[in-house]
Amino acid sequence: MIKIMTIFGTRPEAIKMLPIVKEIEKQSHKIKGITVVTGQHREMLDQVLAVFQVTPDYDLALMNQNQTLTGLTTGILSELDSILMIEKPDIILVHGDTTTTFAASLAAFYHRIPIGHVEAGLRTWDKYSPFPEEMNRQLTDVLTDFYFAPTEVSKENLLKENHRADRIFITGNTVIDALQYSITPDFNHDILTKMDPKNKLILLTMHRRENQGEPMENVFQAIKQLVQRQPDVEVVFPVHLSPTVQAIAKKHLADVARVHLVEPLSMVDFHNLAARSYLILSDSGGVQEEAPSLHKPVLVLRQETERPEGVQAGTLKIIGTETKNVLTEIEKLLLDSNAYQKMATAKNPYGDGRSSARILSIIEQYLT
Ligand code: UD1
Ligand code: UDP
Hints:
Layout: E1 2-8, H1 11-26, E2 31-37, H2 43-52, E3 58-59, H3 69-87, E4 91-95, H4 99-110, E5 115-118, H5 133-143, E6 146-149, H6 152-160, E7 168-170, H7 174-179, H8 190-194, E8 200-205, H9 214-229, E9 233-238, H10 243-253, E10 259-262, H11 267-276, E11 279-282, H12 285-290, E12 298-300, H13 308-313, E13 316-318, H14 323-335, H15 337-344, H16 355-367
Parallel strand pairs: 1-2, 1-4, 2-3, 4-5, 5-6, 6-7, 8-9, 8-11, 9-10, 11-12, 12-13
Uridine-5'-diphosphate binds next to helix 1, helix 11 and helix 12.
Domain UDP-N-acetylglucosamine 2-epimerase: 27-364
Protein name: UDP-N-acetylglucosamine 2-epimerase (non-hydrolyzing)
EC number: 5.1.3.14
């Protein structure tokens, strides 16, 4: 029996890793799964665990109110040490580009345990953007044994860095698998009852470290101007629990008419609200991948993206964070139905929703 340990710690890792954990459960006659969460996030991680009804085998409960990258990294390394020693998995799986991803990979390397990297090969090639994610994923890929690249582009990136070609597999992105656990036709939510049903819903998320400060302030100014200029628009903004993000959001957008600041939504609520929205504004990675499946345009609040497939497919547009430009780009999609339709009907380039099973069958092929 193969022993697979999944290790994750934040909301997006959980959303993209739990479909694999559920697939392992289905195959429990031949795979033993061990689930470890670092607790880099707390409430936002627990929301996702609840949706998938998974109780981790180990919870390192590491989150602090003002955690530092160094504190998190050292905490994860030292806590995982004894767990890896006791459990001796055949392989660990990490996901994406967080501090949990890199620190868990390093811990496994010290124990000479093979590493599978889910969502390997995303790159901007810019050391500080996104920070620290670009280095987290590059460093993880130096340590990785099995690369689960979501697309051809991510595979090519890995080949450019001379990683082993025979260990790179295009699997699609497991975020598309996650949509099967959430999208429902009979969805309702408190927020919808507070809105005028004739209004257009814009869903906003913004949390990246490099956007905290002036870029975020500029975008929120654009939102304020937007609702003043466009009376049939309502903005729903589930605010990330980072104290920095909370403070900036409240400073600019508390008590602004038709702007709804709400707590982070559960994955089910977020996906279903996204499906009912007119368009999405976001600097999130995962949102850029799932929105195309829901046929929603995403205006990306960043200077660049490691998800060029979506830009090429026409479903994402990079608009930066400058107030005037953000406002212009949103109004273009509100007023120009051709431009809107072009983005809304582009094809999702991130997979068919069967990535988790694909990843497990590759592991099985190599480790049995
Ligand atoms: C982290 C990841 C980032 C990912 C993001 C997804 C790193 C360095 N960053 O950034 O790559 O895009 O998660 O959301 O790995 N907090 C809570 N409750 C929660 C979650 C966070 O209170 O459930 C607060 C805490 O005060 C915490 C702070 O948010 O200290 C920041 O969390 P952290 O994981 O360090 O950074 P994120 O910005 O969430
Ligand atoms: N998401 C959620 N609730 C929210 C906002 C986002 O469940 O209130 C989900 C969203 O569907 C996506 C994921 O969180 O799958 C993205 O996570 P986040 O933006 O925190 O991180 P990133 O993807 O940028 O690393």
